Amino acid sequence: MNKHFYIFRHGECPFNVSGHIQGQKFNGRLTANGIRQAHRVGETLRGKDIEVIVSSPMRRALETAEIVRGYLNVPILIDHRFIEVNMGVVEGMHISVAEKRYAEIYALWRNPRNQHKNIHFKNGESKEDVRRRIFEALTYYARETPYKSVAVSGHGITISQTLLSFGMNVPDVPNGAVIHLGYTRPRWHYLGFVR
Fold it and tell me: What is the CATH number of the domain that holds 29?
């Protein structure tokens, strides 16, 4: 049976504007622009026969999911496996500071090549950790639930790591972007960005 997953990045929040690394500790609300982006996601997903929205527990993802629900009239489930990456010691740091203070690790983190999949900041998750939990969650909804069309409200790094699993090097997924995955047991298929 074919199943469809539409994974979207939350709308813009203050740290996206200021250039600080959010991770899991900083739980900002959407900006006015982020609210507009969330409405665009809702408009984009209307007509996709979505049956449920599964959201990260972070406020920025939940706010986006709530706005999108207004277009789809479906329930929202919270799943902690879709939470943003734990970036360890660099959470809250401006990107320019992290690039200098942790130059080698930061360069490896941004490098899309799979041989660096176990790199991580102190007290943080690795790329491999992130991919494992994301695909564990996606596979659960694909195999263990009756839903045929699922929307997921997630985060930039979790989505970029999902894309990297398909050989797509997109280190900076825009706020409000939507990707489409298909699942036909036992395989996942990348079906592109939804415009």
Answer: 3.40.50.1240
Number of Cα atoms under 13 Å in the Cβ half of residue 114: 8
Domain of 62 in residue numbering reads as 2-193
Q: Is 172 exposed, middle or buried (0-12, 13-18, 19+ CB in 10 A)?
A: exposed
* 0.85 exceeded by pTM: yes
pLDDT in tens, 46-63: 999 999 999 999 999 999
Q: Using CA atoms, how far apart are residues 80 and 185, in angstroms rounded to an integer?
A: 24
Residues in the chain: 195
* Domain total in the chain: 1
Who's near 66: CB < 8 A, 6+ residues apart?
76
Q: Which of 180, 185, 181, 158 is nearest to 170 (CA)?
A: 158
Q: What span, in angstroms and rounded, lies between the C-alpha atoms of 81 and 159?
A: 12
Residue 40 · residue 22 · CB < 8 Å: no
pLDDT at 44 over 70: yes
